[in-house]
């Protein structure tokens, strides 16, 4: 979700590091509490893409698209 409070993913990870905490990140798996779900396949693809980009943002070198955004 979008937030404008100045605490993004990078700031969250830095905060965890400063306080010697282990961050826990989660990704949407296509399920909801109301019984609705997204079937594996093309409908789930945008969420998979977001998760992969999040991993690249966190761990990727600055030569990658999202690693450069982080840097």
UniProtKB/TrEMBL annotation:
Species the sequence originates in: mine drainage metagenome
Stretches that traverse the bilayer: none
Any one GO molecular function term: alpha-L-arabinofuranosidase activity
One protein family per Pfam: ASD1_dom
Hydrolase keyword on record: yes
Hydrolase recorded as keyword: yes
Gene3D superfamilies according to UniProt: Glycosidases
InterPro entries membership: ASD1_cat (IPR055235), GH (IPR017853), Glycosyl_Hydrolase_51 (IPR051563)
Keyword annotations from UniProtKB, A to Z: Hydrolase
Protein name: Glycoside hydrolase family 51
Domain Alpha-L-arabinofuranosidase 1 catalytic stretches: 2-71
């Amino acid at each position: 979700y979008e937030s404008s409070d100045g605490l993004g993913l990078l700031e969250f990870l830095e905060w965890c590091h400063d306080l010697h905490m282990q961050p826990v990140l989660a990704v949407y798996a296509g399920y909801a509490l109301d019984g609705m779900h997204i079937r594996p396949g093309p409908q789930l693809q945008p969420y998979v893409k977001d998760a992969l980009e999040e991993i690249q943002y966190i761990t990727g070198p600055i030569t990658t698209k999202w690693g450069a955004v982080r840097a």
